[in-house]
Amino acid sequence: MRSYFRPHTGTKYDLNVSRRDERARLIPEVSSLPPFQALIDEYATDVMAVLRGAVGRGGAEDCFQETFLAALRAYPKLKDGRNLRGWLITIAHRKAIDHHRANGRAPLPVAELPEVAVTDPEPGGDVWAAVGALPPKQRAAVTLRFASDLPHAEIAAALGCSPEAARRSLHEGIKRLRKEIA
Amino acid sequence: MKASLQRLAERASEEGLLDVAYTTTDSPFGPLLLAKTRRGLVRVGLPNQDTGELLADLAGRVSPRVLEAPAELDEARRELDLYFAGKLDRFDLPLDWQLSQGFRLRVLRAIARIPYGQTRTYTEMATKAGNERAVRAAGSACGSNPIPLVVPCHRVLRTSGALGGYGGGLPMKEALLELETEQNLVSR
């Protein structure tokens, strides 16, 4: 099967724009998106790895299903097919946050409480709500950094921007969160 | 990962998100691509056709929600296996005709009614489709057949008896006609 993705960069569904416009005139209503299966073949492993990092092995499978079902639901209406990997990983992070929220509401029972003095103030339950209220780029950068523990370079790859821009989005996001929560 | 992907295809189907299900299956001529929508079989790719291109075409013309889901095509695969073994002379599969329109669609619908083991000419098909002079167009309709084998365009020949053309190559057309003739002799 033909690969829709350049090797190594792994992020681009490349279509010469002017040629696409030309074709669009000849055959209206033609989607430029690759068959969804091509995304699965190319990125399922990456998405699973990100989710294992974000929610652990136990939750990863459920999040994986939710991620790809959500992606499949939205796919035909997707306007920009250029950074499909970043798009999938952003959805995966949203599902990871949902998972953490659900787990926060239903904490696992433990036999014994560890006797550790808590000195740091507990973040309020609405931290993730505040994260959810951030502008999209900042929100994605913050969740990629803190829910999934990704380094700046990978956040940049997922968002399809430069590492500097990723760092800036993250910084702005954190600044705003501090203000919101304080 | 394999189990995860299988579950994903099942859930996509349950939630109505599987617009085009496909699989590949072996045949005596090489691998075939089978693709269906909720309405029925929409595309059969012959061994000499590029699977990636066929899938890209389906993504563009039907829906980009294209998933590999072999279980969805169990019945089509079963009937084709029987057909190649000479044990099935009539496909009973729902078809989705959406890839063909107008005159071409009328030609293909007429072809779908040619009985097993028999042949017709391009001229007869043009006539059936309502324009006896459009013989060339009837020929190109055969060539554009998105559902070969099941819509048996291999049963259409030139008036002279010459084979004409075939998307899967003339040796395949010849072999299919031979298979059907042999079976015909055995069963009658």
Key structural traits:
heterodimer; A: 182 residues; mainly alpha; Butyryl-CoA Dehydrogenase, subunit A, domain 3; 7 helices; 63% helix; globular; B: 188 residues; alpha/beta; Double Stranded RNA Binding Domain; Arc Repressor Mutant, subunit A; four-stranded mixed β-sheet; two-stranded parallel ribbon; 6 strands; 12% strand
Description:
The complex is a heterodimer of chains A (182) and B (188). By secondary structure, chain A is mainly alpha-helical. Chain A has a domain of 127 residues: Butyryl-CoA Dehydrogenase, subunit A, domain 3, CATH 1.20.140. Chain A contains seven helices and no strands. In chain A, α2 crosses α3. About 14% of the residues of chain A have low confidence. Chain B has 188 residues and is of the alpha/beta class. Chain B has two domains: 83 residues, 2-Layer Sandwich (Double Stranded RNA Binding Domain), CATH 3.30.160; 86 residues, Winged helix-like DNA-binding domain superfamily/Winged helix DNA-binding domain (Arc Repressor Mutant, subunit A), CATH 1.10.10. The model of chain B has no long low-confidence stretch (mean pLDDT 94). Helix content of chain B is 42%, strand content 12%. The longest helix of chain B is centred in the C-terminal third of the chain and has 18 residues. Chain B has seven helices and six strands, in the order αβββαβααβααβα. The termini of chain B are far apart. At the A-B interface, α2 of A face α1, α2 and β4 of B.
